[in-house]
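User: Reviewer 2 asked us to show a designed sequence for the structure in our supplementary figure. I'm pasting the structure tokens here. Could you produce the per-position amino acids so we can include them in the response letter?
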């Protein structure tokens, strides 16, 4: 098939659609050389929106779709999936109210149930899938999406256990091989005051890194009680934060943001984790712990002192300090100002950043990378940060020192139930007890 027939024949498969988008710039070269027919065809196709599908129509899924539709021209939401049809309907309606011209989700493109996401992957119209379900599903959904040739936005964390890590690594490699873009929801990597602070550190503004502190300490988090006549699985999927196979506990679900920032600063994952914590005031069936403190040791004997906590009535703290031989860099979480101070306490540098901008930038980068034919693939990086969080959790849960080598290549922990069905019963919740809970 020559490039002109490619222009005139809309490719049949979603993979074909993506290849087609990627050849845009090469064909543009021919058009500029004077091929008028190709130029006008290209102009038409450039106007064709990239079509989005959303999987997981809760708070962040709706937010992520809104961010993409807000920041990008030439995108259109055409399909949604959630285990609950009501969530599909309300997300599509809310987004259509805000972005009339960019949302066209008819009832036949709203897919419910645990397999709803597969219908989006089978939908040849959909170019890009946004995943914002509970994270336990993420490795398997993302891996299926890569195999289906869809571009991907994946919320963080991208896994909750070592089995999920190995699935993500394979999916990353497959994405690189087949030209699938994967951008992840670690938005601080796209926030100005983070980017500039990391650059300052790289340029030697605090000397050599000695250690770091990161904290994600806040009040409590939501708990969605059980309603009548729902199965154990329905209940746990709705109240997913409190079940480890779905959320990975606070360290993985939430504090991954700060762990990811420190892995970025340190240039990779830590070698070991050793830590402690406990469960004091969670609701009776919540498997989550209230707090964890972990020492992560990075190559070069650099120590990260990490703490996370969700307990009402305690003092909040959320941000990162990086200590160097010549100064300290503070990078606060959310929107704020990063600073560097020298050992005399003088502020020598500062930069502001907005988390709202960062949430949008990740979607701009994704769409731009697809359009330019240079897809960003960042799954492995976020898989490493997610696994760092899992490594910390396992150290606290078991009371053992856990190594990176163990979690990447020896652990057999796989928390995702086999053949999950929506009406299934689930085992009673289980609570980790250091010294008793085994490291597997
Ligand atoms: N980047 C950030 O700052 C940020 C902020 C909040 C949440 N998140 C992440 O976004 C994800 C979703 O969080 P949320 O706050 O939107 O939760 P939520 O409970 O509001 O939404 C989750 C949705 O997924 C649906 N769902 C559950 N299992 C599903 C499945 N197998 N297939 C399809 N749909 C399914 C639920 O019905 C629900 O509508 C989590 O990974 C969370 O960590 C990221």
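Assistant: Here is a per-position design you can include in the supplement:
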């Amino acid at each position: 098939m020559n490039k002109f027939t490619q222009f005139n024949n809309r490719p049949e498969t979603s993979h074909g659609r993506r290849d087609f988008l990627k050849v845009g710039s090469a064909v543009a070269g021919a058009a500029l050389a004077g091929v008028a027919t190709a130029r006008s065809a290209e102009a038409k196709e450039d106007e064709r929106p990239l079509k989005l599908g959303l999987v997981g129509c809760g708070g962040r899924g709706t937010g992520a779709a809104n961010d993409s539709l807000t920041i990008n021209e030439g995108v259109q939401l055409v399909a949604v999936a959630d285990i609950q049809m009501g969530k599909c309907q309300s997300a599509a309606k809310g987004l259509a109210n805000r972005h009339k011209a960019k949302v066209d989700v008819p009832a036949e493109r709203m897919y419910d149930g645990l397999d709803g996401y597969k219908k989006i992957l089978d939908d040849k119209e959909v170019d890009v899938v946004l995943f914002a379900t509970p994270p336990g599903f993420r490795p398997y959904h993302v891996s299926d999406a890569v195999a289906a040739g869809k571009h991907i936005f994946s919320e963080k964390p991208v896994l909750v256990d070592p089995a999920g890590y190995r699935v993500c690594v394979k999916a990353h490699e497959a994405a690189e091989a087949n030209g699938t873009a994967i951008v992840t929801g670690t938005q601080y990597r796209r926030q100005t005051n983070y980017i500039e602070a990391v650059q300052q550190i790289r340029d030697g503004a605090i000397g050599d890194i000695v250690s770091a502190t990161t904290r994600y300490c806040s009040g409590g988090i939501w708990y969605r009680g059980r309603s009548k006549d729902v199965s154990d699985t329905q209940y746990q999927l709705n109240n997913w934060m409190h079940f480890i196979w779905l959320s990975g506990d606070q360290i993985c679900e939430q504090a991954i943001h700060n762990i990811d920032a420190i892995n970025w600063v340190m240039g990779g994952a830590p070698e070991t984790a050793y830590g402690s914590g406990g469960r004091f005031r969670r609701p009776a069936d919540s498997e989550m712990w209230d707090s964890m403190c972990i020492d992560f040791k990075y190559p070069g004997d650099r120590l990260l002192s990490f703490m996370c906590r969700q307990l009402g009535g305690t003092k909040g703290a959320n941000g990162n300090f990086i200590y160097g031989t010549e100064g300290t860099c503070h990078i606060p979480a959310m929107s704020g100002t990063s600073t560097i101070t020298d050992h005399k306490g003088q502020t020598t540098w500062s930069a502001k950043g907005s988390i709202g901008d960062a949430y949008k930038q990740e979607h701009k980068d994704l769409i731009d990378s697809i359009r330019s034919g240079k897809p960003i693939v960042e799954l492995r990086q976020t898989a490493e940060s997610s696994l760092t969080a899992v490594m910390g959790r396992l150290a606290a849960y078991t009371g053992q020192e856990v190594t990176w080598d163990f979690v990447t290549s020896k652990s057999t922990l796989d928390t995702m139930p086999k053949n999950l069905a929506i009406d299934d019963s689930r085992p009673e919740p289980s609570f980790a007890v250091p010294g008793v809970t085994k490291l597997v």
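For the response letter, you might also mention the following. The first strand starts at residue 50 and ends at 55. Residues 379-398 form the longest helix (20 residues).
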